[in-house]
Structure formats: structure tokens, C-alpha cells
Amino acid sequence: MLTQLCLTVTIPAAAADTDTPLICCGAGEVFILPDSQLNADNPAPIWSWRATDSPTIPVDARKWFGSTDECKPLKESILITSSGGGVALVQRRDKKCLFLAYARNAHSACILPNNRIAVAASYGGDEVQIYDLDDTSRPAQPIARLPLHGAHGVVWDAQRTRLWALGDNVLLRLSIPDAAGKDKLRIEQSWKLPSKGGHDLSPLSDGEHLFVTTNKHVYRFSRKTGKFAADDELGDRPKVKSVTQHPTTGEIVFHQGTPEHYWSETIRFVGERKSVRLPNRRLYKVRWDALAP
Question: How many whole angstroms separate alpha carbon 142 and alpha carbon 133?
Fold first, then answer.
């Protein structure tokens, strides 16, 4: 069982409020930057991973991770997806791959109860998939699927025991299969997005709102009222590929593609903290190394 591995905050208690690293992904690499170096350009990673670092990933499957696009923190591991199709749960300590799946154009994933994992398979895959983390096949096979055009984001809502999934035009609230797998993955409610191109989905620290980014805007979605509102600071920014709020300090970090590309070399923050440049890197998503609420 992998459950105990996955469900606790990653950062030491003494440093949780003031010294939280950032997990970054893009191209073929996932890496971690320490907070203490974020005041300088081109800070050096304190941890990095490529598919070749995990001997338990078969050689012919390593090409699935050439364009990493998600890097969610777990206690002892990092959950990684790639538009090349790769989905991996990678142990920080020795970079061992504990779980491996292939989901066409995978763009996000999250851990679910009952030792399950949800994956958003975007254009070409166009569905939400559910896997059993104890499936040791290489690759694992989905146990449930639900069509979703342009699926880009999945977030587990422990308070409401529901899965949120973001597609090209809609945000869905889903119920998931029970422990015995008897119930189907099904849509409970859907909301049309205010603009096209749903991309990133992440929870705010208030327990109510979700960040929803699209091709041209960033919104806050209320899980209580079902309403979208443009974010005060980021609302009119296009091509925001990720936005994450620190669960304790409330600080927001985001990544925005350049006018020419979906990637950039810059990590950005809302507030007084200066942007951080990482020359010669192709950033896609940036996450605080702390579990979301």
C-alpha cells in the first residue's frame, strides 16, 4: 500500500511558514529550488529528476517524460505527468518510480482515497482516468474513465469528498468509485467556463475557492456558490500555465508563457517578491512544495 507515503505535508515543521521550496517542471526535468535562493537569478536546484534517473522506468517508457507538465508534492514523493504520456510517482529519496502509467497527453494528476490516482488526459486522450496505485504493471491500466474534452486539471477535495476536473470548456464535480470499485466515475455537476481553454486547476488556502486558468484569463471559482470571478491581480493575464497559493502564508506563485511560447524562463509572484529568471530552462508549472488544503 502506498497511502501512508502520500498524504502529509512535505516541508519540515520548523520551516513551513518561511522557507518553502518550489517544485518546477518543464521539458524533460523536474527540479526543486530552495526558498533561500529565490532572491537571485538562476538559483541552483537542490534536487532534480529525469526519467533516466529512475531505473524502474523501462527504457522504452522514458521517452514519455520529455515534456513534463505537472509536479505535485507529496510527503516522500512527487507526482509527475508529461504531455508525452508519462505519469509517475517518484520517491524523493532515491528517485525510484513507485507507480507508472501512460495516459495520452497527460497534464495533471492527484491522489485519491483508497490508494487511487486520478489523471487528466488532455487533447487526444480527452478523459479523466482513475488508477489503482497498487497496480505494479509497467504501465498500470485505468480502472475507470470519463470523457472530458481537453482535460487539463484534477484536484481532490477532501472536505467535500469529490474530484474536480477541468476541461477545455467546463469544470466538473465528480464522484469517484468506492473502495470496492462498484460505483462509476460520474458527473455530479458541471459549470461552463467564462472563457475557452481551461488549463490549470488548483485550490486556494481558504478551502472555498479554486484557481481556474484559461487561454486568456485567471479566475477564482467558489465551490460554495458555483460562481467564477476574475482574479484581482491575475485576471487578465493570458497563458498562465500554473498558479499556486501557499497553504500557510497565502503567497501566490505562478508561471506565464511568453507571447511566442507556452513556456518561459521566469518564475513570478503576486506581491513584493521579485521574479526569478532561470536562463536556458523551459518552465511550464511551478508549485509550492507544500500540500494544498
Answer: 10
pLDDT higher than 60, residue 198: yes
Question: How long is the chain?
Answer: 293
Residue 177: which of 119, 135, 134, 114 has the closest Cα? 114
All 3 cell numbers of residue 248? 500557510
Distance CA 275, CA 264 (A): 12
Radius of gyration, CA atoms only, the chain:
17
Give me the chain's average pLDDT, please. 91
Q: How far apart are CA 126 and CA 122, in angstroms?
A: 5
SS3 (DSSP) at 149:
coil
Q: pTM score, two decimals?
A: 0.91
Helix (H) / strand (E) element for 6: namely: helix 3-6
Q: State how far Cα 265 lies from the chain centre.
A: 19
End-to-end alpha-carbon separation of the chain, Å?
23
Identify the pLDDT of residue 178.
Answer: 79
Q: 93: which 3 cell numbers?
A: 529519496
Q: Which of 64, 177, 98, 162 is nearest to 130 (CA)?
A: 177
> In angstroms, rounded to a whole number, what is the distance separating the alpha carbons of residues 148 and 269?
31
CATH topology of domain 3-288: Methylamine Dehydrogenase; Chain H (2.130.10)
Instruction: Average the pLDDT over 136-161 and give the result.
Output: 96
Backbone angles phi, psi at 65, to 5 degrees: -110, 30
CA-closest candidate to residue 285, choices 261, 264, 259 = 264
pLDDT value at position 143?
94
Q: Residue 115 CB: number of other CB atoms within 10 A?
A: 18
Render pLDDT for 33-49 as a digit per residue (tens, 0 to 9): 998 888 777 888 999 99
**Domain boundaries in the chain?**
3-288
131 DSSP β-pair partners? 117
